[in-house]
Amino acid sequence: MSAEQSYDVIIIGGGPGGYPAAIRAAQLGMKVACIENRKRMGGTCLNIGCIPSKALLESSERFMAAKTEFTTHGIEFDGLRLNLANLLGHKDKVVSGLGDGIDYLFRKHKITRLLGTGSIAAPGQVEVAVADGARQTLLAKSIVIATGSEGATLPDVPIDEDRIASSTGALSFPEVPKHLVVIGAGYVGLELGSVWQRLGAEVTVVEYLDRITPGMDSELAQVLHKVLQHQGFEFRLSQKVTAARIEGDHVVLSVEPSSGGASEQLQADRVLVAVGRRPYTEGLGLEAIGVERDRKGFITVDAHWRTNVAGIYAIGDVIGGPMLAHKATEEGIALIEQLAGLPGHVNYDAIPAIVYTAPEAASVGQSEEALKEAGVNYKVGRFPFNANSRARAKAQTEGLAKVLADAETDRILGVHILGPEAGSLIHEAVVAMEFSGAADDIARTCHAHPTLPEALKEAAMDAGAWAIHIA
Ligand code: FAD
Question: Which positions fall inside the Pyridine nucleotide-disulphide oxidoreductase dimerisation domain (predicted)?
Answer without folding.
Answer: 351-460
